[in-house]
Amino acid sequence: EHFTPECKFKECVFENYYVTYSSILYRQTQSGRAWYIGINRDGQVMKGNRVKKTKGAAHFLPKLIEVAMYREPSLHDVAEQSPPRKTPKTSSDSPVLQNGKKDAQSKTKTSSS
């Protein structure tokens, strides 16, 4: 119901597994040649009357998607895959620094006689 006749295309598979899509509705007025879907090197859509089936802009490689193998990642999976967090050291594990020097409390004094 949402698709118009402009959305109908003929799919042709070449022997090298490339696929082209030509419009069923539109053709060249004089020659009757079909209009093809094409994408230029910048990724922009080309005009259908400028694209020929022999040009690389009209060749597409189909990619199969197996729906049965795909599943949405859950938050549990994300937590398991993340690297373990580093816990900050407590003050008892490391000496306390003041102005780049060890604090007097953390130094052990030895008395010489």
From TrEMBL:
Residues 75-113 are annotated as: Disordered. It comes from the Eukaryota. SMART domains: FGF. SUPFAM superfamilies: Cytokine. One of its GO terms (molecular function) is growth factor activity. It holds the Pfam family FGF. Belongs to the heparin-binding growth factors family. This is (Atlantic silverside) hypothetical protein.
